[in-house]
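Researcher: We're reviewing a set of sequences before deciding which ones to prioritize for further study. For each one, I'd like a predicted 3D structure that I can look through quickly. This is Ribosome assembly RNA-binding protein YhbY. If possible, include the structure in token form so it fits the rest of the review sheet.
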Amino acid sequence: MLTGKQKRFLRAEAHHLSPIFQVGKGGVNDQMVTQIKEALEVRELLKVSILQNCEDDKNEVAKELAAKSGAELVQLIGMTIVLYKESKNHKKILLPRA
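Model: Here's the predicted structure for Ribosome assembly RNA-binding protein YhbY, in token form for your review sheet.
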């Protein structure tokens, strides 16, 4: 679990990022989760946007993506989700201590 201090740090790091995945009408699917896992391994921190035509609740989408990808939900702001997962092979982000 991330502390408040670590989440603040990650929100600041994510500020300049653009969303690289979109959740649309089909909702969350296995292929999307696989791609997000792979992207998290390389990037550690990424944004996912929820499109207007997504029929699922944005909070449920955020929780489902975090749970299925094994990532931490850093933030859900508007229709944008910020996810973080520490990389095994491509560690770039050094979190502040708790």
